[in-house]
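Notebook, p. 212. Picked up where the previous page left off. The plan for this session was modest: take the two constructs that came back from the sequencing core last week, fold each one, and keep the raw output in the notebook itself so nobody has to go hunting through shared drives later. Recording the first one now, exactly as returned: residue sequence, then the structure token string.
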Amino acid sequence: MADVVAGGASIASDAATEHTTHRGGCHCGAVRFEFQAPRSLVAWECNCSICAMKRNTHTIVPGSAFKLLSGEDHMSCYQFGTMTARHLFCRTCGVCSHYVPRSNPDGAAVTVHCIDPGTVASVTVRQYDGQHWEQSYEATGIQAASMPAGRN
């Protein structure tokens, strides 16, 4: 997104850099969270065995920018393979509103469709080839997504 100024020049929109508080949660409302991120989000679509089945498009934020507000007692965790990722879901409604990804164990992956309306200006979706995980990890730079602002 860009703002047009006099003379036809464009400048980067504040939505790409200005952080805001996003809130969201699961379908039944038991799990609620908030996180700090730009209004324009970068999200990842992965084709690994679990993401392909869940069809989960997620944005990754530093762990320090994510806060679980309620529902920890309503969540279950599923792990497989390397046991690094923590696939969290609500035991009541089954929705995975957020999880700890293998690519960014120091961060949180938030399902973009679980973010409440009103704070997201845009979402740019990038592809992650989870069927060739190690090569995609090196090629995409996804590991930088969970670094606090100014470090990536």
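Okay, moving on. Second construct, recorded in the same format:
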Amino acid sequence: MEPLKYMSGFGNEFSSEDPRCPGSLPEGQNNPQVCPYGLYAEQLSGSAFTCPRSTNKRSWLYRILPSVHHRPFTSVIQGNLSYNWDEVDPDPNQLRWLPFKIQKASEKKVDFVTGLHTLCGAGDIRSRTGLAIHIYTCNISMENKSFYNSDGDFLLVPQKGNLLITTEFGKMLVEPYEICVIQQGMHFSVEVFEETRGYLLEVFGSHFELPDLGPIGANGLANPRDFKVPVAWYENRNIPAGFTVISKFQGKLFAAQQDISPFNVVAWHGNYTPYKYNLNDFMVINSVAFDHADPSIFTVLTAKSTRPGVAVADFVIFPPRWGVSEHTFRPPYYHRNCMSEFMGLIKGHYEAKQEGFLPGGGSLHSVMTPHGPDAECFEKASSAALKPERVAGGTMAFMFESSFNMSVTRWGLEKCNCLDKSYSTCWQPLKSHFNANAKPSHK
């Protein structure tokens, strides 16, 4: 496969046309009486028409047939996709999962859609407020099938295996250490090349955006120029046996048949697009004197709520960096949080827990559930020589943090058979070092 081409930027006004059809973008207007090449004009709106210009999201697609050209939708099997946050009792414990299992193709063929498993979430799809965290595991590609999410945006974090994602806007190759966002309503199909696993954050009612930088200034964290948007690519392919379009609508899956591939967009323009980002491009900012900057300093993307400074979900990473803080306990501090924290590991060893937290697994520390370094980490870091050191070399951990108090599904607590029931024992060896007669030292 030839290297794919991309456009650079975040939230830009992009325009692209497949080079096989030069001049396919109409000039001077969006919806001419007759489009070039006999195409249909279709607008995809990601915001209300009357949103302020700074938050108004839409794209115009010029396609061989409009997306309405399908037969009626009918309900299909849900599998382990769920938005029932009350199916099991709440669990305030610290939760950790061993690597989620990938079924072998010789046992059962599973594509991206059938391999979606809801782990936890909160909120309500119909009122369009909240989020869900899913795990995807699959072993075959989606063949003559596309998927779109009527309920919200998907942020995909591959952990094992590359994803070749075909969208209405073009193609993206997304590898581990990269992420991609497929926004609400966008058709896509996933091709895989091996047994594949990853994490998926879904938000309802808001879109991901770059965090405000405040006193950091104009540059830093995830820079807009490093985001990549696909270029137009189309296929004019009839499928006599039928092409299946899967819609996730109000948390349920529905399927419709049509005779032509939905990836028939010859040209498009707008600011509502899928995009990808390489986590290695993140400009890390960290404390260079003493104490910790809060982990929000590692935010890549945020989906804001209506409350200023409070997110429906933040996507935060813990990349390789230098630790130089003086007089400081350098690992993450002990913490109780008014937010929910789900963590995953793409590769390597997380510094606060060298054992047990494994690539392809995860952990959930719910609202006000205590968490922090295990006993071994505490003892080691409390006596370590505080020299400049490389932190998290060869590692990429991440966090989905949310203001919502998330519930875990039955699949997450029982059916996945990956819950590490010994997790809490990592803190039991912690011992008191209190000495009422000790004289405090000063910097």
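Notes on construct two before I forget. The helical segments are 375-382, 410-415.
Flagging for discussion at group meeting.
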